[in-house]
Amino acid sequence: MKRLLVSLIILIPVLVSAQNYKIEFTSPSITDAQKYYIGQHFRDTFILVDSVQAKKSELVFAGKKNLETGVYTLLNKDKKKIFDFMVDDSRKFSIAFDEKHSNAGMKVTGSKANTLMFQYMAKLDWANELGKSINERKKDPAQKEAADNDMNELTKTMKNYEEDYVKNNKQYRFTHLVDMSKRVEVPDKIPAGSKDTNLQLWQAIYYRTHFWDHVDLTDHSLIYTPQLFDKMNYYFFGVLYYQDADTITRYAHLVLDRIVNDSTMLSYFLEFLTPRYERSTKNIGWDQVFVNLVKDYYLAGKCPWATKANLTNKRQTIEYLSHSLIGAMGQELLMADTNQSPDPKDWISSHAFPQKYVMLWFWDPDCNHCKKQTAELKTLYDSLSATGNKIFEVYAVGYESDTRKWINYVEKHQLPFVNVGGSNVNIDYQEAYNVHGAPTMILLNADRQIIMNKTLPTKSVLPFIEQYEKDNPEQANRPPSQWQIEGIRRAKLKN
Fold first, then answer.
1. Which end of the chain, C or N, has fewer beta carbons within 10 A?
2. Are 265 and 259 in contact (CB under 8 A)?
3. How would you class 123 by CB atoms within 10 Å of its CB: exposed for 0-12, middle for 13-18, buried for 19 or more?
4. Given its phi and psi angles, is residue 341 left (phi above 0), alpha (psi -120 to 50 degrees) or beta?
5. What string of H, E and C letters represents the secondary structure of 79-138?
6. How many other CB atoms are there within 10 angstroms of residue 89's CB atom?
7. Could you tell me if 89 and 170 are in contact, meaning their C-beta atoms sit under 8 angstroms apart?
8. Listed residue (230, 236, 322, 318) closest to 283, CA to CA
9. What pLDDT score was predicted for residue 385?
10. CA-based R_g, the chain, Å
11. d(CA 347, CA 49)
């Protein structure tokens, strides 16, 4: 729940009736004449709601603006967190706290919701301290058995306490947060009658499917809590991190379709997810997730907050990305080599090579990272050539407006690739392959279909191809494609 202040955010309003608020804090740790703030959680940020100067060890925040239900934070003069509190059953209450800001030391007047929250947090603090002492006892072999028993009892005690707390306090928003913290209880056996046989895979699918079971997504106040953000962030960029684009999209639908008629909650998710899937430069296939979400929600008319200009921009973006997505056919480039012939008959195809795979390598001799990885590629390329096992060709495009500088670098370092560059080219390769900087690596299979559109470390290229052929066994021992045959023919004519 620790967050730093960032710039203001435009929020979709949650409709609540205007209510005066008066929230008071007293403590010997409050420094007179210093400014203090209360901030509201929204995704991974704080939004400042109000500020006051301390007087006589007291803070009084008062006003007529709406305070949405949710988690708020008291901040010091440096906008650093002191502690969290709730706005729920009351907007007129006071909290007295000690110098340690301990949960057990919180004295609340006028808000049962905050009283219960601090009681719960104090109980957790007690359990954590007791758990630490039990773990220390476990280090002594003579006490281990007794300590294990005590730990089991503590676990039972806290489980019963939590169940009673949730059962008896359902009307308070903090209870929803407690409920959200429950772990997904994954069965240790595949149910009888199931066609599944791989227990580990079945359990992983069960966990992903039931991850949101304890989250009440109809409760708008959750968007003003750090817990919903943490859960959303962990699910999409933790639980689903290594899944392919189709899998991520499928599980995204499980969540988003539950809230598709709630523009406030849908916006909360989509306006966080789509930029991250669009801008990822390392994760293979994440651009496809962005395209899927835009098509399925924004362009399908399910996002009423999106302006016409915003929708036009997103439509243009996915059209631009569509050429370079995994599975798309790579567009053939015809470019001049270092001789820079203006005659298209002399230009070299990016597709017609006898090798099964082609690496399109867009690089810049002024880019240090490009130079380092180009040298590593040369070492790998030379070693494969020496053993007669050059499974891929490198079609290296000089991403440099100064053609002479690029040619000099190629000649000086004796780059053995198919080196092309300059302005003599059949199409705009930046648009064709979504090249927005150097280095950029694109890998094409035998059919010259894009199978990788992110820049891999050189050491990962061969393992990637090996894994690709395991996942696509039909590619492992397939006969040469027409592109490969054409490459063999051209090589014979050249020789």
1. C
2. yes
3. middle
4. beta
5. CCEEEEEEECCCCEEEEECCCCCCHHHCEEECCHHHHHHHHHHHHHHHHHHHHHHHHHHH
6. 17
7. no
8. 236
9. 94
10. 30
11. 63
Question: pLDDT tens, 324-343?
Answer: 899 999 999 999 999 999 99
Contact 122, 103 (CB under 8 A): yes
What would the pLDDT profile of 242-264 be if each residue is shown by its tens digit? 999 999 999 999 999 999 999 99
Question: pTM of this prediction?
Answer: 0.80
Q: Residue 19 — pLDDT band, cuts 50, 70, 90?
A: low
Structure token pair of residue 412: 């000086």
Q: Which residues contact 96 (CB under 8 A, 6 or more apart)?
A: 25, 26, 27, 106, 107
- Written in H, E and C, the secondary structure of 359-385 is EEEEECCCCHHHHHHHHHHHHHHHHHH
Question: Is residue 5's pLDDT more than 60?
Answer: no
Structure tokens at 238: 């933790």
pLDDT digits (tens, 9 = 90+) for 399-447: 877 899 999 999 999 999 999 999 889 999 988 898 888 899 999 999 9
Q: What's the angle, vertex CA 105, arms to CA 69 and CA 131, rounded to 5?
A: 95
Contact in structure between 359 and 376 (CB atoms under 8 Å): no
Amino acid present at 78: D
CA 307 distance to own-chain centroid? 25
CA distance 269 to 253: 11
Is the pLDDT assigned to residue 280 strictly greater than 70?
Answer: yes
